[in-house]
Amino acid sequence: MSYFIKLGLTITTAIVLSGCASGLGGGNVSPQQESALGAQQERQVLSKVRLIRSGRLYNAVRNVGSRIARVSGRPDFRWRYHLVNNPRQANAFVLPGGKVFVYSGLFKYASNEAELAAVVGHEVAHALRSHGVKGAARKQKAGLIGALLQVGMGVAGVNPQTAQQVNQVYGQGATLGYIRPYSRQNETEADSIGLMLMAKAGYDPRAALRFWAKFGRQGQRVPEYLSTHPAPASRIANIRRLMPQALALYKKSRYARRR
Ligand SMILES: [Zn+2]
What we know:
The chain is α+β, with helices and mostly antiparallel strands. The chain has helices spanning 9-18, 31-46, 56-70, 113-128, 131-138, 145-156, 160-176, 184-200, 206-216, 224-227, 232-252, 254-258; strands at residues 5-6, 51-52, 80-84, 92-95, 99-103, 178-179. A 4-stranded mixed beta sheet has the order 2-3-5-4. Strands 1-6 form a two-stranded antiparallel ribbon.
């Protein structure tokens, strides 16, 4: 989704595990290695965040997560879904091998399970496509993303409020270790695959349009040229284009039939 948080260990560990000394490519990590890496990172994140382990929002995360995991086609992944108690962060991220973290602040924009499924589907798609591990090596030379953002903002003349928001987001990630945004192409791919996943899991894919429209209007959105994330308009155009295919999957899903 946005402003992805990765731990400092991601990069070195991914490269060591893949035996890829050049640091390029990085896609040669086996599913077992990826799973081990994700589990290690999950433990580190869990030591630094406060989780919500009961209640309506927790149940929604677990329910959506298990339905999407069931249609992911990867029963070998050890899918885990955590709800982080942080009402000020409207965000979610995934670690390699399928460890999904949703921040409670996301529920400002996700008003029901179908809208939440748009986000969870997107995160699961990143894990399925190994975007995290593949991107880690590639981004190795990017250095301090925070510093780059500062420079980028100076050049682009972004207003101080936006600059402050970027810094807040970066600060949040810095406490966890490292921020590594996915490429725009990865983001679009995650949107596309995520849409099909939510539909297969029996969630009306049109909820994705509602969610991303609301999310796109949020104050702390980073401008597209800084974030590498699709601007709301291009994101929504892509989802609209895929909607007939997603609706067909939705109508075939066992959950939809049951209703
Ligand atoms: Zn994403």
